[in-house]
Amino acid sequence: MIKYIVMDIDGTLLNSKNEISEKTKEILISFQKNGGKLILASGRSYQRLLPIASQLCMNRYGGFLIEVDGIGFYNIETEKREILKEMNLLEVQSLIQYLMSLDCEVQVCEENAIYAYIPERLIPIKEKIRKERNLDKDFPWTSGPWDFIFDMRKAYSSIYYFEDCSEIKGKIRKIQIMDYETHIQEVFQSLNKTFKNQFEFFRTSYRQIEILPFGYSKGKTLKHIMKLNHIHRNEILSFGDGENDVSLFEQTEKSYAMGQAKEYVKQHASHITKSNNEDGIYYALKKEGF
C-alpha cells in the first residue's frame, strides 16, 4: 500500500509555466486527506520549497522537504531542519579552478548567496539578450537551467561575481554549471574522469550540471528519512525527470519517469507517465487507483 509520494519539483511537479496544475494539486491533496504524506525533493533550498508545500496543504498534513539535491531535509510537522553535509572552499578549490579552466559558467551556492564566475566568451551572448529584453543594469548576469540570463535573486538574496576562488566565503551547499548542451556533455564526461569518487555529478537539465559532496543525493537522504520513520520501499511512489532523480527511483519499488525525461532516466524507472505539461503525476496516480 502506497503511504508516501516523493517527487521532484522542476520538470515534474511543476509545468513549464512553473505552476502545479489544478488536477495534480487536487489529487495530491486528496491523497493526503486519505492518510498519505508527500515528500518534495529538489535542488532548491527548503525556504523555496515551503510555498510549494503550502499550495499542497502540507502544512496541514505534514511531510518532508529534501533540499539542495539531498544535502539536508526539513520536517514540516516538527519544523526541524537537518543538514547532512556541506562543503568548504578547501574541498572544492581545485574543482572550481578546473571548471574555470574549461571556460564554464560556475555558480557556487551558499545558504543565501551565490558566487558566479562568467567566462569572457559568454559576455557578448548575455549582453545581446539583456539588450533585446531591455533589462535594467542591476539585473543579474547569471544563467539559469534554460536560459543564459536568469534572475537568481528569487533563490539567493545576494549575488557576487568572482575571478578568483579566494573571493568565495562561507559554507558551500552545491556547485552548478550552466552552458550550451554540447559543452555540458563534454564537461560532464571530463568531470567524471578527473574527479571520480570525489564529488557527485548530475545533469539536471540539458544545459546544467549540479555538483554535490561525494555519496550524497536525493536518494540517500530519502533512505535516511525512510529509516527514521520506518518506511518500507514498497510504501513509497517516486516521480522525477532528471538524472538526479534516479537515486529516488533506486529507493522505491515503484517509480515513474516523466514523459519528457531523457532516455537514461526512463531506463531507470519502473514506469513512464505523461510529461509535466500533460499532468503526468495526475495520470500516474489515477492509474495507481488514487
From TrEMBL:
Entry GO terms, CC: cytosol
Record bears the keyword Hydrolase: yes
Membrane spanning stretches: none
Pfam families: Hydrolase_3 (PF08282)
PROSITE patterns xref list: COF_1
Statement: the UniProt record of this protein carries the keyword Hydrolase: yes
Name the record gives this protein: Cof-type HAD-IIB family hydrolase
Keyword vocabulary terms for this entry: Hydrolase
Residue ranges that the Swiss-Prot or TrEMBL entry lists as coiled coil: none
PANTHER family, per database record: HAD SUPERFAMILY HYDROLASE-LIKE, TYPE 3 (PTHR10000:SF8), PHOSPHOSERINE PHOSPHATASE (PTHR10000)
InterPro entries: Cof, HAD-like_sf, HAD-SF_hydro_IIB, HAD_sf
